[in-house]
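Hi R.,

Here's the chain you asked about this morning:
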Amino acid sequence: MIKVHIQSNDNPSFLKQVECITNRLLSLHCPKEIYLVNVDNWFGEKWLGFSGKIMGAFGVGQSRLTIPPFVPNRIISQRFFSSDYNGTYLEKESPYQLHIEQESENNLHRRMRQIVPNSIVIWYSGNSKTNGRGVVMAYIPIKEQYITKYVEFESPDWNISRVVGGSKDEIKTLINTNVV
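And the predicted structure, written out as tokens:
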């Protein structure tokens, strides 16, 4: 089971939601690898499927999913796990840095299938204690494509306030299903 690291400005109840979603997605989809990325602050749904900007101004999404172009200094941590022969996920040194300093237009060519094939990538927001809200965004490989999910939570009870790429009931099932 993958544990999410708590930072001083994170709400433990929100991070428990992140942990439950992460582990349930792993048990459902059994990817070879997973990247777990902690972003420094809340981020909006525009990041779901966002690829970059052309000529510095026009936002672009693509049918071939790319790694969202978060600025590297927004990334608190990037953790990488690989499945062993028993299906246990072991943390290892990451073979790729997902978020790199580059011109936004260059990110249009950083496709998920090329950079991290068959890997689930989950981003979650930091600073949840201060913001009173948190986000989980996941890119999940299914056959020749990726499905995407974006889930917002709000305090004080850390209930789901918004879902893109699924339903609240689906996310509640992910959270409330025990994984051993």
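The CA atoms of residues 153 and 160 lie 5 Å apart.

Let me know if you need anything else.
M.
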